Amino acid sequence: MSGLSAALVQALHAVVGDAGLIRDAERMQTYLSDWRNAYRGCAALVLRPASTEEVAAVVRLCAEAGVALVPQGGNTGLCGGSIPDDSGEQVVLSLTRMTAIREVDTGNETITVEAGVILQRLQEAAAEVGRLFPLSLGAEGSCTVGGNLATNAGGTAVLRYGNMRELTLGLEVVLPDGRIWHGLRGLRKDNTGYDLKQLFIGAEGTLGIITAAVLKLYPAPRSCNTAWVALADVAAAISLIGRMRQLCGDRLTGFELMSRQSLDFVVRHVPGCNDPFAQVHPWYVLIELSDTQVDAGLDALLESGLGEAFEEGLVVDAVIASSEAQVAALWALREGISEAQNHEGPSLKHDISVPVSCIPAFIETTDQALLAYLPGVRIVAYGHVGDGNLHYNLSKPPGYADADFKDQQAALMQIIYDATARCAGSISAEHGLGQAKREAAEHYKDPLERELMRTIKQALDPQGLMNPGKVL
Fold it and tell me: How large is the average pLDDT for residues 67-77?
């Protein structure tokens, strides 16, 4: 219990009760490492408040005592942003008991939820009233709304609906001194000064703790068509997405790019997943169209677009799903990549973004540089082509020792990040900086931007107690 006085522990216990305070070392372990076991830490204790008022009371007590807090949601991140350091003096503040759906306003097309609501439950609540909440990602069965907001999550439907910044109208936030900002406004127009909610979205809990949000709802799709398409190269994917955008407009909901290496891992390690084609191809895209009309002519649109692309040599082969089961099978190939790669030993995750037009050149030159540095390294490249976001992950060469591969992490990361910088890209598209990319951001992010970020941090959290060691 290093750093925490008995009086403070007693006061915190009085706020959250028996169900909200965990001191047992074995029970705490779940909160002290990420799902990949890539980051581990220690903590004085774990607190699980059940309301915004309890969060505020906890924050006030810890602020008065100078105790650092590490906010945590579903703990599904990839950059260690929700894991405490190894001092054993920080307190993990889990929002997983705050699971209320406070209001569904179909007239305003909004839903107000607490930070601990699981993303899948949010999707279900929207569906129950005939609406869609469009954020969708592989961890949706366990990630929370608070974590999605803290990292400005994107997912597979960003092309049409945008990321969490675009999906959020209002926030409720506990500030570092324990005050509550009541910003739960469902307004689409509010030009009365700074858009404060945007400070907290993507801040990874370093400026305050998001406890609830007003989110946008959309009409539920009533028709959907999905295709798995084989391509000869990445340039063909860029040409194809341009063609499909022109043809389909905002009915183009998803356009996901995957390398052959990505598909190999999925077919090898994810039960029930099979290659849709008999022949091997170097690249694939998963295309999804959706519409609110039952008979929207999506079949004809998809077939027309792919047919013309085939005639021009952009498409090598394609299969269009003819049932919900086939749609699910195709999406499983895309969503199983991250899990499948874990079976191949340690993986180095890189979540970068570059202008869409730069994607082919980025992949070609970066692939060459990586293979020249570490022959045999397996490059698992996939992502959301429409917004320039690539998950550019690395697995060790066959037979290479895990420890030796990890020793190469810094050099491999520099190759990727240098290439990203040359394309005027970002070293983090949707996973955040956490602790994994904090030091890299010092090098690759504009110095003035870093200075402005520190100014904001100092103004809101002068004691530096909100998720210290993350982002900055």
Answer: 96
CA of 80: how far to CAs of 33, 34, 101, 116, in Å? 8, 7, 28, 18
How does pLDDT run across 53-63, given as a tens digit for each residue? 999 999 999 99
Q: Which helix H or strand E contains 371, and what residues bound it?
A: helix 359-373
Burial 391-401 (b: 16+ CB within 10 A, else e): bbbbbbeeebe
C-alpha–C-alpha distance, residues 413 and 409, integer Å: 6
Which ranges in 176-277 belong to alpha helices (H)? 197-200, 234-248, 260-269
Predicted model pTM: 0.93
Q: What are phi and psi of 86, to 5 degrees?
A: -100, 15
Domains of the chain: 6-94 (3.30.43.10), 101-219 (3.30.465.10), 223-339 (3.30.70.2190), 344-448 (3.30.70.2740)
Q: Which helix (H) or strand (E) holds 76?
A: none
Sheet holding 209-216, edge to edge: 101-105, 110-114, 209-216, 168-174, 180-183
203 contacts 210 by C-beta, under 8 angstroms: no
Q: Which helix (H) or strand (E) holds 123?
A: helix 119-128
